[in-house]
UniProtKB/TrEMBL annotation:
Protein name: Geranylgeranyl pyrophosphate synthase
CDD domains: Trans_IPPS_HT (cd00685)
Species: Cnuibacter physcomitrellae
GO molecular function: metal ion binding; prenyltransferase activity
GO BP: any one term: isoprenoid biosynthetic process
Family as reported in the entry's similarity comment: Belongs to the FPP/GGPP synthase family.
PANTHER family: GERANYLGERANYL PYROPHOSPHATE SYNTHASE (PTHR12001), SHORT CHAIN ISOPRENYL DIPHOSPHATE SYNTHASE (PTHR12001:SF85)
The keyword Metal-binding is annotated on this UniProt entry: yes
Keyword entries, A-Z: Magnesium, Metal-binding, Transferase
Cofactor(s) the protein needs: Mg(2+)
Length: 389
């Protein structure tokens, strides 16, 4: 990661010189010419393999839990439901790296991919506890499920909510522990297993640091500078969602160290770009297209690159009192968006996302990686760029 001072210089340069159209134009032409049907079939096959691993895993844990009692079995059923419904993005990164580097044992790759999916499940279950959220993907999460069970039984809401969050801590602990156990069941050689576990360990270690920074931001006066927010997003999300899975897939395939490093660099860049775009969509996105509220981040006062840039501009004082208001109206949100446009904060965040996508593409151009790897991950770069448009 670049130092804050060098980050600031790079950011300024990029914001001044790069535009979305020119960036896309500069990419190799076949970044934009993707065989959608072929990619969809490939993605579905990988997802199916990971789903099979997870189905076998949860079936075994439910069987064991029934020997303890119905309550424990129900907890495992709830955890399984909460691990379903996602896009299996992280395991697909593992398998994409593995296959593009010549890996043949898809069952082992799917098992490692499933481990990263369980890690993701653990982190979002715990993240919902931290944020006091009771819903995920439009349905009750673990906390919400157990809160609802308690309120149905006549338990007062504060106690019911505490019970829900307590059970979610237990469920997240289980998912975290068994992410490591899944790797043990992948049939890997001892040397490869140790290196993959080290990557999972680093992913968890850095994500916890990022989560801590995010929690600190929520109680800290003012909005942190851009560099600190980017670093938090790298730690909290980019490592375990992109960089870690890609490095793990490369290690499984027996790739040379230079290839592992290059894919990791790609994952770091594209992961940061993805998160900046996600924050943009959290304010400017079409709710029907994204499936995500474009009021939630403003009502929460979430620290993002958008806000970090805006607070340095005098116009921000017109709307500063509205950000973080849980009763924020649609009209007030539109006022904030207008200021974010007027201050150039939206353009700044878009340019920064493109800059990190560009860094990711440059990592893919490493001579340590083959054209097959570049072909595999071109759609990922293009997909992030399309989300900015």
């Amino acid at each position: 990661m670049a130092s804050p001072s060098s980050e600031r210089r790079t950011t300024c340069s990029v914001v001044c010189t790069i535009s979305l159209t020119s960036f896309i134009t500069r990419l190799p032409c076949n970044v934009k010419q993707v065989d959608a049907h072929g990619l969809l079939a490939l993605s579905e096959r990988r997802t199916h393999l990971v789903d099979e691993v997870l189905e076998r895993f949860f079936a075994e844990q439910r069987r064991r839990a029934r020997g303890i009692g119905e309550a424990y079995s129900t907890l495992w059923e709830t955890l399984e439901r909460n691990s379903a419904g996602g896009k299996r993005f992280r395991p697909r990164m593992v398998m994409a790296a593995y296959e593009s580097l010549g890996g043949q044992d898809l069952e082992s790759a799917a098992t490692v991919g499933a481990a990263f999916e369980l890690l993701h499940t653990a982190l979002i279950v715990h993240d919902d506890v931290i944020d006091r959220d009771f819903v995920r993907r439009g349905s009750p999460n673990v906390s919400g499920s157990y809160r609802d069970i308690a309120t149905t039984a006549g338990i007062p809401i504060p106690i019911a909510e505490h019970r829900g969050m307590s059970v979610a801590v237990i469920a997240g602990d289980l998912a975290l522990f068994y992410a490591y156990r899944l790797i043990d069941s992948g049939g890997l050689s001892e040397q490869v297993r140790r290196r993959v576990v080290d990557v999972l360990d680093e992913s968890m270690f850095l994500s916890a640091a990022g989560e801590l920074y995010d929690v600190d931001f929520s109680i800290r006066p003012g909005v942190p500078p851009v560099e600190e927010i980017v670093e938090m997003e790298r730690l909290k999300t980019a490592m375990y969602s992109f960089e870690g899975p890609l490095r793990a897939g490369a290690l499984l395939a027996g790739a040379r160290e230079e290839a592992v490093v290059a894919l990791g660099d790609f994952g770091r860049g594209i992961g940061i770009a993805f998160q900046i775009v996600d924050d943009l969509l959290g304010v400017f996105g079409d709710e029907e297209a994204t499936g995500k509220s474009n009021l939630g981040d403003l009502r929460e006062g979430k620290s993002t690159v958008l806000l970090a840039h805006a607070v340095t501009r005098p116009e921000w004082q017109e709307v500063a009192h509205l950000v973080g208001d849980p009763t924020l109206t649609l009209e007030q949100a539109d006022r904030i968006r207008a200021v974010l446009e007027a201050t150039g904060s939206r353009r700044f965040a878009e340019a920064l996302a493109r800059d990190y996508a560009n860094r990711a593409w440059e990592a893919l151009a490493s001579p340590a990686l083959t054209s097959r790897v570049r072909d595999e991950f071109r759609p990922v770069v293009a997909g992030v760029l399309e989300r900015v448009r």
